[in-house]
Amino acid sequence: AQSVAQPEDQVNVAEGNPLTVKCTYSVSGNPYLFWYVQYPNRGLQFLLKYITGDNLVKGSYGFEAEFNKSQTSFHLKKPSALVSDSALYFCAVSAHRGSTLGRLYFGRGTQLTVWP
Amino acid sequence: DADVTQTPRNRITKTGKRIMLECSQTKGHDRMYWYRQDPGLGLRLIYYSFDVKDINKGEISDGYSVSRQAQAKFSLSLESAIPNQTALYFCATKAGNTGELFFGEGSRLTVL
Q: Distance between CA atoms of B39 and B54, rounded to whole angstroms?
């Protein structure tokens, strides 16, 4: 079965410091991996995805993520956090093939707070 | 105009009432999804559809039904609402297996 774990409910970081939001996954076969961000009272917005190729993926707003197959991880990173990055972040995984093809499974979300 | 539009954005209803949440999209995507968001639980898939003639149950389909009226329209119904269906509901569309989801702004449903 496909699943996603975001081990931290909350991440707090000072503005200007690097940030990491962790994600590990379980999927049959090769994964498609996604990160989304949700601001208060809004829908989720796509940040970046890994489908194949380079393990380091760059996305919107200066975010990047590294796919690590051996550790089944896809951690979200940013070199220098901004207060405006404060939001709820979701990791999601989709199977490459099989009966659940096309379905995205979401983690429980990590609340990122960046303080000035 | 938003690419994925949900109506109503907010609804308060009573136990036992029938409620319909509607979703329309202008992305031209074949795939449409209904998710439910509860605090601390993330998003859980209710139903999804790969085209007008294809409807599939998700993780938590009990108590819900859907209708894909056209490629651009996908509605979610609660035949007899109950309080534990109080949640934030999202419609989303997707282009193919590797595409990302595009979400609507959400429909907040409260069942008293």
A: 30
